[in-house]
Amino acid sequence: MDGDVLLRGVECHPARSALRGGLLDVRIRAGVIAEIGPQLQPQGDELDVRADGGALLPGLADHHLHLAAMAAHATSLDLSGVSQDGLAAAVSGAAAGEDGWVRAVGYDDVVHGELDRDVLDWWSHGVPVRVQHRSGALWVVNSVGLERLGVRECAALGVHAGGVELDGAGRATGRLWRADAWLRTAVGGRPPSLRAVGARLAALGVTHVADATPDAGTAGVVAEAVQRGELPQRVMVMASEADPTRVSVGPLKLVVADHALPDLDDLAERMRTAHAAGRPVAVHCVTRTALALTLAALDQAGGLDGDRVEHCAVADLAAAKELAARGIRVVTQPTLVALRGDDYWARTEPEDRPDLWRYGGLLRAGVQAAPSSDAPYGDPDPWACLRAANERRTPSGRVLGPEERVPVRTVLDGLLSPLHDPGGPPRRIAPGEPADLVLLDRPLTQALRLPDAGCVRATFIGGRVVYGDVG
Ligand SMILES: [Zn+2]
Fold it and tell me: How far is the CA of 64 from the centre of ligand 1 (A)?
């Protein structure tokens, strides 16, 4: 729905100092906030919305997710709730998608055991199958699939030739590391529609998203979806190439993969090149070593405002202080603790456990840190994120790092911070600002007592109602 809107009787957040406490009316005209004040006069054919004291917030931002993977996830076999015993039946019974492949996600080597082409061939030898590890870093493909992809055994290529893992005899194991871009081209087929993803995010109150997928092809898919109007959100991408006329170009995503650490000089050189092109870097770090290497490389390259670390899954306080001293932001994922905290605990060396997925400790050390989902690997629901960051409760009920808990208001501020400045000052509701807003069905204090997406009554992007019934 387009047109002008008068929201009557809202509780504005962050609160406007001059009018703190009272209910206000907010007029939206031509996509921007035109006027704010008590008891505004309705005009012309404005849509007149009685908010009855519901909170009005700037739209929520997800500072790290993967839009195309979210869409593909929805049409894939999800193995995350499947036991090791149930795995064979789940894969062999799965139906192939439009591209002729069985696509499965959520494979976990610890729960399901090691997978390779031979294991998959036992279960499914006639249909191409590709199974994604829950980290997103690994695909396992059966023999028919490898044939379709044109993967030839070749001992001369070495063990990790372009991500295709080979055994000692030069035979492909079916394991493909960080090969998403190549795999997507090789599988072919139509790019997934992002319409359902956009609608789901709108229903959660999300108006801003940062796509953290590194490859340019995926950024192209996202830019086209924006162009086709499938995705109402404001989108920033971190890929190596992106069309700045359709999406906003963010920091350049660099992956310091834990299974194959890059060379320090190479990493520093890639940072320097990005900086020279005016782009900060967003570096994927999930181990202590990856973080140390990243800090060393950034020291060598020199920093640029906007540089950030994604995940920062293991960081001691000395590393946190180094991040703070250099002004490097951190984008963390509270729902991963809620979904997988027990696994992280079990798989981490005891001495690393206090340093797992810090959030509160980073803030105390002076790091500018913000929450995000990493969907589809984490939960895209920002209200679940508020709960997860505040409670840090794992599926078994353990509190992972009680001192890492963060007050919901602080987490919310992170969700309200601009895409280009995660963890910075929250966006504001003020005249002249874009009308990217979330209207709740209750006051904020009530909504934050037990955060739940059910409190979202309507979402506006550029003044347009993208979710909710306010007519
Ligand atoms: Zn990610």
Answer: 6
Task: Give the model confidence (pLDDT) of 234-261 as tens digits.
Answer: 999 999 988 899 999 999 999 998 777 8
Residue with tokens 């092109």: 277
In this structure, the answer to whether residues 244 and 308 fall within a common structural domain is yes
Dist. CA 147–CA 321, nearest whole Å: 50
Q: How far is the CA of 390 from the centre of ligand 1 (A)?
A: 21
- Tell which of 187, 208, 231 closes a domain: 187
Ligand 1 centroid distance, CA of 459 (Å): 25
CA distance 328 to 324: 6
The rounded Å distance from CA 171 to ligand 1 centre is: 30
Distance (angstroms) between ligand 1 centre and the Cα of 399 equals 24
Alpha carbons 167 and 144: distance in angstroms, whole number:
18
Domain count of the fold of the chain:
3
152 and 272, same domain (yes or no): no
Alpha carbon of 278 to ligand 1 centroid (Å): 22
Same domain as 418, residue 450: no
C-alpha 219 – ligand 1 centre gap (Å)? 14
Q: Which segments within 52-211 are labelled E, that is strand?
A: 55-58, 60-65, 77-78, 102-107, 129-133, 138-141, 160-161, 164-166, 172-177, 206-211
181 and 196 both lie in a single domain: no
177 located within any domain: yes
Give the environment of ion ligand 1: residues with CB less than 5 A.
212, 374
**pTM recorded for the entire structure:** 0.88
Residues 214 and 337 in one domain: yes
The answer on 365 and 340 residing in a single domain is: yes
> How far away, in angstroms, is 65 Cα from ligand 1 center?
6
Q: What is the CATH number of the domain that holds 402?
A: 3.20.20.140
Pure H helices in 75-140: 84-92, 109-112, 117-123
Confidence of residue 20 (pLDDT cuts 50, 70, 90): low
Please say which residue of 187, 207, 233 terminates a domain: 187
Q: Which domain holds residue 155?
A: 76-187
141 assigned to some structural domain: yes
Q: What is the per-residue pLDDT across 388-446, written as a single tens digit (0 to 9) for each?
A: 999 999 999 999 999 999 999 999 999 999 999 999 999 999 999 999 999 999 999 99
374: left (phi over 0), alpha (psi -120 to 50) or beta: left
Q: How far is the CA of 298 from the centre of ligand 1 (A)?
A: 20
